[in-house]
Amino acid sequence: MCIRGICDDHDDFFSPTFRQYWITPSLLSDFDLWVDRIIAAIERGEKIAIFGDYDVDGVTSSWLLYVFIRNMCKHPQVTIRLPNRLEDGYGIKSYHLDEMKAAGIDLVITVDNGITSVQEALHAKEIWLDMVITDHHKQLDEIPQAIAVINPQTSPDYEFKGICGVGVAFKVAVGMMKKLWFSDKRMQQATRYLLPMVAIGTVADCVPLVGENRLFVKQWLEYLNTRQWVPESLLGFIDHIGIKQEIDSFHIWYMIWPRINAGGRMVSPYDSLWTLLHHGESQKKHLENIDNLNTQRRQIQEKMFKQAEDQVNHDHYLLISGGEDFHEWVVGIVSGRLTERYHKPSLVYKHNAETGMIVASLRGPSYFSVIEMLYCARSLLDRYGWHKQAWWLTVHKDKFEEACALMQGYCDGIMPQWGHERESQIDTIILPHEMTYQSMQSVMKLAPFGMGNAEPVFAWPDVMIASVRKVGKRGNGHLKFTLNYDGVIFDAMWWSKWIRLTDFEVGQTWTLIGKLKSEPGNWYVVVEDIILKLES
Ligand SMILES: [Mn+2]
Question: What is the rounded distance in angstroms from the CA atom of residue 207 to the CA atom of residue 134?
Fold first, then answer.
C-alpha cells in the first residue's frame, strides 16, 4: 500500500466515511443563488427543464436531478432534454433554448455541460428564459452569465476538483435537502437512493477514484449489495444482466456502463434514460433494446478493429488506419486496442468526405510522448487536444498525408531506442508464503479501482504450468492456467488470448504478471503478460 503513497492514513482509505471526505456543497460558488432559484420554481409551480448530455455522466446526472425534483421535492413539472450525439453534438445550443421557451419552460438547468456556453447564456437572457448551470468541465476565459454557475472548477473554496457531472448534481441535491429541511432519516434514504447513479456516472466518466469520488463509489457498492433503498430500475437492470456475485467497480466498467452508453452512441441517449426511469414489466423492452444496441456496438467495434489490423503497415512504428467507413466514436477504442496489442503508437481516423476533414484518435505506449509526436506536425493540423484519456486531432485531407509522414518520421527516429517490448508497471513481487486467501483479501480492500487508483499489478517469478487449456466460445476464447508456485497451486485467466495456446507446455517455467480477482472464498489471477523465464 505504501507504494501507492497511502501510508499515513490507510485506515481512512479503507473505510471512507462521509464525515471524512464529504465537502459541504455550500462551498460551491453561487450555491445559494442556485438553491433559491430552484426552490422558487418549485414553490411557484414553474416548468423546469433539465438539459444533459448523451454520455453516461450526462444521462445519470439528468436522471438524478429529475428524480430529486420530481419525486423527492414532489414537483411534477420537470422534464429532461438530451442532445443527440450526431445531430446536436455536445452542449446546449441556442435553438434548444428557443424550443424550450416555446414549450413554456420557465427554468433550464444544465447538467454535465454549460460551462462553455457563454453565447447561449446570453441568448437565454435575451429570450427571458432563466438558466442555471451545473457542470464539472473547465471554464473558458469567460464564465457564462447565467443566474448561477455551479462548478467545482469555478469555486475557489471547493478544493476537490475531480467530481464529475453527476457528482455535482448530487452535491446540489444534497445541499437542497438541507435547505428544504429534510429530516435526517429522509436525507439518509434519499442519498442512498441517488448514490448508485452517482457511482455509475463517476466510474464511466473516467474521473480519478480518489477523495469524494472514491467515497461515492465505495459507499454505493456497499449499499447496492444490501439491495435496500436502491432504485428499482437499477435492481431490474442488474438482474437483467445477471450479475450474481457482489457488485464492484469491475461490473460498472464492463457490464453496466457500456449498456447505458450504447443508447447515446448508437441511436439516442433517451434509449438509455428510459431503462433508468422504468422498472418492472415496462422496463423489460427498454432493457432488451439497449442490450441489442450494445451488441451492435460491440460488433461494429470488432469489425473496425479487424479492418484496422489488416490495414496497418508494420514496417513503421506508427500504426495508421482508418477511412470513410470508420465510425467516429470507434476510432479511440480501435487505436487503444492497436497500441495495447502491438505496443506501438497508433493513429486511427475517420475521413468525412462531405467536409473533407479527418478526425483521428492517437495513443502510445506509456513511455511514449504522443504530444511530442503531434508537435512535429502541428503546423499542418487544424486542431488537436486531449479528451477522455486520449489525444485527438483534426486535419484537412489534403494535409493528412504530409502530417502522417512527419509523425511517422518522428516515431521511426525515436522508437528503436526503446524497442517495442512491453514495459510492465509492476507494483510488487508476490512470494510463495504470501499466497494466502487472507493476504489476497487485504489487497482487494484497496478496491474499488479505476482512474487515479489503478488496480495493483503483481509479478510471480518462476511459476510452473501445471495445466493450460482454452475456455469460452469458439473464435473468442480465453486461456485458463493452473500454476504451481513453489508448491502453492492457483489459477490464472488470460482473457481473449486463446490464440497463444500453442506457446505453452505443461512443466515450463514462466514469469507471470497480473492482477488479482477475488470471488467468495477464492481468488485467481488475471494475466496481464506472461514472459518465458530467461536463462541466466
Ligand atoms: Mn462529464
Answer: 17
Predicted structure pTM score: 0.74
Tens of pLDDT, residues 430-486? 877 777 777 777 777 777 776 677 778 888 878 888 888 888 766 567 889 999 888
What separation in Å is there between the alpha carbon of 85 and the centre of ligand 1? 14
Cα(146) to ligand 1 centroid in Å equals 20
pLDDT at 504 over 60: yes
Are domains 16-182 and 428-532 of this chain identical in fold? no
Angle among Cα 323, 329, 331 to the nearest 5 degrees reads 45
pLDDT at residue 532 is higher than 70: no
Placement of cell 435575451 in the chain: 126
Q: Is residue 5 classed as helix, strand or coil in its secondary structure?
A: coil
CA distance 82 to 230: 24
Amino acid letter for position 483: L
E strand or H helix at 395, and its extent? Answer: strand 390-396
- The domain limits of the chain are 16-182, 312-417, 428-532
Assign domain 312-417 to a CATH class: alpha beta
Ligand 1 centroid to 117 CA: how many Å? 15
Is the predicted pLDDT of residue 529 greater than 90, yes or no? Answer: no
User: How many A from CA of 368 to the centre of ligand 1?
Assistant: 27
- Three-point CA angle 29, 38, 146, nearest 5°: 50
| Residue type at position 82 | L
Task: Classify domain 16-182 at the CATH topology level.
Answer: inorganic pyrophosphatase (n-terminal core) (3.90.1640)
Tell how far the Cα of 58 is from the centroid of ligand 1, in angstroms: 6
Could you tell me the sign of the dihedral formed by the alpha carbons of 206, 208, 210, 211, in that order? negative
CA of 387 to the centre of ligand 1 (A): 11
- CATH hierarchy code of domain 428-532: 2.40.50.140
